[in-house]
Amino acid sequence: MPSLPPFTAPTAYQDPAQALAQVQHLYQQAMDHLRQAMQRFVAGESFTDRVRACYPFVRLQTDTVLRSDLQDASLLSYGFVAGPGRYESTLTRPDLYARYYLEQFELLVRNHGVALEVGVSNHPIPVHFSFAEHDHLEGELSPERRQLMRDVFDLPDLSSMDDGIANGTWSPGPGQPQPLSLFTAPRVDYSLHRLRHYTGTRPDHFQNFVLFTNYQFYIDEFVRLGHAAMADPLSDYDAFVEPGNVVTRAQGRSPQPEDAMGAAPPRLPQMPAYHLKRADRSGITMVNIGVGPANAKNITDHIAVLRPHAWLMLGHCAGLRNSQQLGDYVLAHGYVREDHVLDEELPLWVPIPALAEIQRALQAAVADITQCSGADLKRIMRTGTVASTDNRNWELLPDNTPQRRFSQSRAVALDMESATIAANGFRFRVPYGTLLCVSDKPLHGEIKLPGMANHFYRERVDQHLRIGIRALELLRGQGVAQLHSRKLRSFAEVAFQ
């Protein structure tokens, strides 16, 4: 028999706050059980029984498709189940997700008028996912002792971490409940650990509005703006975080105990993240994803579990029209997907629509920052289709076949990441948008040369970044309820945002 935490029977709650408190209690009880056992294991103790703790779950059962709050029912894109039945999801890190879970619980109770049941699932928590932020216990083990961990603890099981729910390919077995969330608890934990590795910052620093870029120039400018915001007594932001969890607090804000744990890494991580934070998590995170669709898919696969309100791509592109000038902007309203990294998860016959709320915010931000309007605005910003390719040297292919396809698609710009980020936003129900800046025109003899590039970067990086920040601030000011469009949700959708 495995060694388990004390048994706790499932309990029903009409009060969402009480339901959340029970999730937190059960999760902490599981963490204490695993951590104490792991400490004894590292100290050399022998175990005759397997050590196990399982994720908490939340469950809802309803007998009707009707919702209690009929006045708001037609406006909601989440917060309700699709029809009669039993719905259930495992939960993790209720410290990190407390605000999010509480909102989902409140909507479910309000819309369905039924109690939420909270209990312990039969899905084991991998011991690696129980380590505290600065625990590195496994590193103290000998190779033989590390091998023995499999006989004592549950290790990560990839079969419980797939994206079948998000992809729309998962179906329940006989008697199995429908999911409430796009992600299982192990899938969330896996991504939270990956985010630490790839970005060099803790998941709790991530904000609900995200900018992606493929150039370090943008990051350098974001760092400059972040430190300027911390020196501004009127700033809306209260902290700026850099890789290594190095925290700069806003003027007049007291340091927190965890700030002392931050230290700049000896080298930057693969996709460094920077966070301009607000207390309600509605600040801005910026990530340098590097070059290529594989990186773009990788990082958005993981950030998606944080359930952000929007993410935008700010990058450079090849202008495909002779009328474009270097430094012009391209607002994507459609995508040609020749990136191939999502072909298995999201077939090419799935359209990736432009989202009106994002498009309006980006256009308004360009107008605000450039002070252009009317014909002048159209002169510097073109709305059109963006093609994304996984072949950086597409222009060297014989017979001009890529050029022909791009012409037939009416594409106005070409890059390597934008379609991936938009498609993964569609796939994970995260509002998305793209604003690119023309850095070269290879079809028209204007290839990227060092002198031209340096001039281009000096002229456009600061303005382009300010436009992206302004767009996210406009979206935040309009309220996030408008952002989570029903266009991104299917007719048999999970209840959680």
Structure description:
The structure is a single chain. The protein is of the alpha/beta class. The chain has two domains: 11-194, AMP nucleoside phosphorylase, N-terminal domain (amp nucleosidase, domain 1), CATH 3.30.1730; 201-488, Nucleoside phosphorylase domain (Rossmann fold), CATH 3.40.50. The protein is built from 13 helices and 15 strands. The longest helix is centred in the last third of the chain and has 29 residues, at 450-478. The mean pLDDT is 91.
SSE order and pairing:
Elements: E1 11-13, H1 16-42, E2 54-62, H2 70-73, E3 85-90, H3 98-112, E4 116-124, H4 143-152, H5 164-167, E5 178-179, H6 185-199, E6 209-213, H7 216-231, E7 239-242, E8 246-249, E9 273-277, E10 284-288, H8 293-303, E11 310-319, E12 329-338, H9 356-370, H10 374-380, E13 381-389, H11 401-408, E14 411-415, H12 418-427, E15 432-440, H13 450-478
Parallel strand pairs: 3-5, 6-10, 6-11, 11-15, 12-13, 13-14
Antiparallel strand pairs: 1-4, 2-3, 2-4, 7-8, 7-9, 9-10, 11-14, 12-15
What structural keywords apply?
13 helices; amp nucleosidase, domain 1; single chain; five-stranded mixed beta sheet; 497 residues; 2 domains; alpha/beta; Rossmann fold; five-stranded mixed β-barrel
The CATH architecture assignment of the largest domain turns out to be 3-Layer(aba) Sandwich
> Spatial order of the strands in the main sheet?
1-4-2-3-5
Q: How much of the sequence is in beta strands?
A: 15-25%
The CATH topology of the largest domain: Rossmann fold
Instruction: Determine the number of helices (DSSP H or I, runs of at least 4 residues).
Output: 13
Question: What's the CATH class of the largest domain, please?
Answer: Alpha Beta
Average pLDDT, all residues? 91
CATH superfamily of the largest domain: Nucleoside phosphorylase domain
Q: How many angstroms separate the termini?
A: 38 Å
Structural class: alpha/beta
Overall helicity: 25-40%
**What's the shape?**
globular
Which regions contain 5 or more consecutive residues with pLDDT less than 50? none
Order of helices and strands: EHEHEHEHHEHEHEEEEHEEHHEHEHEH
The total beta strand count reads 15
Number of domains: 2
